[in-house]
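hiii, so i know i said id send this last week but things got crazy w the move. better late than never?? heres the sequnce for the chain we talked about at the cafe, plus the structure i predicted for it. fair warning i was half asleep when i ran it
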Amino acid sequence: MAPTSDAPAHQGASNTVAHPAGDDAAYAALDQWIDAHFDEEVRFLQALVQVPTDTPPGNNTPHAERTAALLSDFGWHAEQHVVPSEQVHAYGLQSLTNLIVRRHLGEGGRTVALNAHGDVVPPGEGWTHAPYGGEVLDGKLYGRAAAVSKSDFATYSFALRALEALQEQADAPSLKGAVELHFTYDEEFGGELGPGWLLSQGLTKPDLLIAAGFSYEVVTAHNGCLQMEVTVHGQMAHAAIPHTGIDALQGAVAILNALYAQNTLYQGITSQVPGITHPYLNVGRIEGGTNTNVVPGKVSFKLDRRMIPEENPAEVEASIRQTIADAAASFKPPRGGHELKVDVRRMLLANAMKPLAGNQPLVSAIQKHGEQVFGEAIPALGTPLYTDVRLYVERGIPGVIYGAGPRTVLESNAKRADEHVELEDLRRATKVVARTLLDLLA
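okay and structure toks below
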């Protein structure tokens, strides 16, 4: 059972928490409001987890509509920006609606955007808790996307609510600027129809960005990602007379061996960004053949090449294409015959994120309040993941990654069975973000 609260939405502690002048008192008032409304925050996250957003297939408009309805309970209008269906379908998705909530807090000042994504990989097997149940047990909330990153729909929404509640106090600090919530649905496919689409359409251009992350570090850089589909064409034949065909699987094995040899060499390339080690390559999907007694005529596989910030994406892609071409050319069918034909298709190119100089106010505020709230230093690091933040940074918007979650992706079970978020991390991260917004806008 989830914890419960008698306080209705958008009232209660916001009208009862008084504080004297001074930043420390204002931080304490934010903390008190979040504590008083935390049961409501948990229920909000449960409601988000209970609407599936498996991507693929990527039918995510229903979740956006549910989120907009929940936000309206706070007195907020969530703009629903529907990506044209022809673009969505060409991308391999079914429906996609991105949300923007704009909250003006004072004349002048900066606009700070908070971005989290609602799309997520399908749950897969091995769950001991219902993947869309939002079950709370032993201080953890379980469900697909509970940690990555529907938790930060809650973190950011309730941090902003706390800040608005603070403004209602007679002796509240004066604020300048605005906060925008960007809730998007295309992180799993690269973000181009999520934040990329909002930015390219001119629907937003914030001054600073905080995007969904974990609680014990503030991420200032991340890897890039190149994903490719390789299709090896041979010639089918009866398994009783294999010499009459060209085994596409044997050809694919030769190519894979060459790629894995490169992967070993990548370990000698070291990034200078703390938190990022070296490039690496993974083959995550292989399919092909028609039957057990048929020499396979076609085999395809999909690879994921992570690029450290120091690498040039064009050079990385050219190198992989050359490795594949050389391996295919060197493959000789056991009894001669035609050469393999290999098609290579780029699926995704996500550039690495490199820190912009203007991100220092974000880093400093998160580190300051993270240490105060969590009781330990919050390092600024890079991450081997790739994220939507790069799309903001590429447009000159300084951004960092910070939100609710454990020390590592592994601990959260993100993209694995029994994904969960520690509720205490959610509570404390909400306080850190609320305090950070106060610093940035006061």
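btw Residues 1-22 have pLDDT under 50 and may be disordered. thought thatd interest u
miss u guys!!
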